[in-house]
Design a protein that fits this description.
Layout lengths: L2 E7 L6 H7 L7 E6 L6 H7 L3 E4 L5 H12 L6 E4 L11 H9 L5 E5 L12 H18 L10 E4 H7 L8 H12 L3 E5 L15 H26 L2
Parallel strand pairs: 1-2, 1-4, 2-3, 5-7
Antiparallel strand pairs: 4-6, 5-6
Helix pairs in contact: 5-8, 7-8
InterPro entries: Glyco_trans_2-like (IPR001173), Glycosyltransferase_2 (IPR050256), Nucleotide-diphossugar_trans (IPR029044)
Organism: Lujinxingia litoralis
Keywords: Transferase
């Protein structure tokens, strides 16, 4: 299968080269880095380390992902792998994440940090409890059991197109998992390792980021559930 990697970045000039150098090149056709309005040399570092770079000035994790997917659509892969640019994940574990898709056992794979080995303090307490709450609600509403909303994930291109992703910021990961559940896509989790990121998290590293992300995740959960109830009542 043809595998492409998509990495949204915002001021990751220190960590991004580490991420790009750790990706197993023999598994990947291309790496697309979406520069989400960086004020440092992230885009330059990405090019220096062999990535394709596209710009998305509208801030937001989802906005960056959507821009990268529009670029990929010109020559789509069989599988898209999403990966953060902060070096908190272990890119060398990519084969573990994509193998269930390659074998035909799943259409989407979530790399679960809670099932894998974590460096002490890597996953902040607010992220731990936020994941637990969101995953419990997803199981209650949709019957799909996840343990994490981890950003390290793989999905078949056709399945991703069917999800019709829309969220432009913090709700991207949970939207993907909710819509996969609603469509009955085959989804599995695999354990992935996790370490302290390089730099400060733009989400859980600040009070404002934590509050905004928590609100958007819960809003997305209930909005999608309300839509499903409306459609079911027609």
């Amino acid at each position: 299968m043809v595998i492409d990697v998509l990495i949204p970045v915002l001021n990751e000039e220190e960590s991004l080269p580490l991420v790009l150098d750790a990706i197993p090149k023999e598994w990947v056709r291309r790496v697309v880095v979406v520069d989400n309005g960086s004020t440092d040399a992230s885009a330059q570092r990405a090019r220096e380390h062999g990535a394709c770079v596209v710009e998305e000035p509208q801030r937001g994790y989802g906005a960056a992902c959507l821009r990268g997917l529009r670029m990929m659509a010109e020559d789509p892969p069989d599988v898209v792998v999403f990966l953060d640019g902060d070096f908190s994940d272990y890119p060398e574990e990519l084969p573990r994440v994509v193998e269930p898709v390659i074998r035909g056992d799943a259409e989407m794979v979530i790399g679960s940090r809670t099932l894998g080995a974590q460096q002490r303090g890597a996953l902040l307490l607010q992220a731990v409890w936020g994941n637990k709450l969101a995953c419990a609600l997803m199981e209650l509403m949709y019957g799909y059991r996840f343990t994490d909303l981890g950003p390290f994930r793989a999905i078949r291109w056709e399945a991703l197109e069917a999800l019709r992703m829309r969220d432009e910021d913090f709700g991207w990961t949970v939207e993907m998992q909710i819509k996969a559940a609603r469509l009955g896509l085959g989804a599995v989790e695999v354990p992935v390792s996790y370490r302290k990121r390089v730099g400060v998290s733009k989400v859980t590293g600040t009070v404002k980021g934590t509050v905004m992300a928590s609100y958007k995740i819960l809003y997305t959960l209930f909005a999608q559930y309300a839509q499903e109830l409306r459609e079911g009542g027609r």
